Amino acid sequence: MEPLANEKSPNQTNRSQNIPVATVTRLALYLRELQQLKRAGLQRIQSGAIAKRLGLNDSQVRRDLSCFGQFGQRGVGYNIAGLTQAIQSIMGTDRSWNVILVGAGNLGRALSGYRGFDQQGFRLVAVFDCSDEIIGTKVGKLVVKSLDSLDEIVSANQVELAIVAVPAEAASIVSQRLESAGITGILNFAPVTVRRPNSSLTVVDVDLAVELQRLAFAVVNSKGS
Amino acid sequence: MEPLANEKSPNQTNRSQNIPVATVTRLALYLRELQQLKRAGLQRIQSGAIAKRLGLNDSQVRRDLSCFGQFGQRGVGYNIAGLTQAIQSIMGTDRSWNVILVGAGNLGRALSGYRGFDQQGFRLVAVFDCSDEIIGTKVGKLVVKSLDSLDEIVSANQVELAIVAVPAEAASIVSQRLESAGITGILNFAPVTVRRPNSSLTVVDVDLAVELQRLAFAVVNSKGS
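Output (structure tokens, whole complex):
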């Protein structure tokens, strides 16, 4: 993913580990493939097979995984279990994370049931909304709460991450509330920038319309070539 | 966004326009901000103000917009209407696109109601599912259809783009069906790679768990710095 547009600070991922954001995205994709292979009962895989599954170049995969060399062996491939664990450790997903969701509209409800989050160790502990009509209703097994109980729940559950799926006009005030409550990272689905100067909040934006525009651009530019 | 992991071909966007994928993503974000400013009644904006809204560097914004020089004037800023139109023309969104959605589960239903798509000229013309329990039910104003009518609807509506929100295990076969039906671009929400060798299909992947992992990584690595 593109660092400048999507991360609070272009060099934030370079501080302690020196891994560019683009590589982080690929590591997450390797992890996804490795976990699928592991579930399928495989024990080893060659870099070329990972590359093929993801539509990448073999040399790119080998370069990305070069720091995990102890799990690879020429001709035999990588030890799937060992490599999985090593990537999870780098990514910070070798532990579980308590996550809250703010915004229980259609998108929020869909995100709350997204199985992929759980599979990667992200545990949804509470859902919030500011609409009186939605507060008190159920989202999966959770009862939607008012933002009045935000501080208490964040602190009691040591929550660090929040998924924000509120309308654009509410996103900025919600992110301020989250930061005051002690949240350090936001996955922002609101089609608006929520970062503010001097904030230590880490924000990753997912704008679904931007993704569809990228697709349109790619389709237009692949024609007649 | 990261070109290698998300696009079918790393250099596909370089064929006719020479614009890297990272820049395309930023152009889409500029467009979003310009449209908001236009709705708010503004006519001109300085590059520095755009940069601040998006958390980017002023010089980055000026570099990206340098090819749209005729809409900018030192000290006066950019003409919002002219710049909007010029970016839309580059992005291929100065026209409307007919789009279909495959997969009417929770995520699919949420995506079908996502206002941002419509605002950027993407018109949802049909929703498909393969479950007999879902076919025939309503998603917004549309009745969910069987994939049996895919070819007919794609051809009748000149549909080029599809949003895929099916389970991982169905994604590959669905994308093959879509390509046979004449779809040229897929926005893929299934947590799996659907690209195949020798396919001319353009694929942009959005893996929500990968985004959350990127956030976890960024939070871990911003600590103690």
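The domain at 12-89 of chain A is CATH 1.10.10.10 (Arc Repressor Mutant, subunit A).
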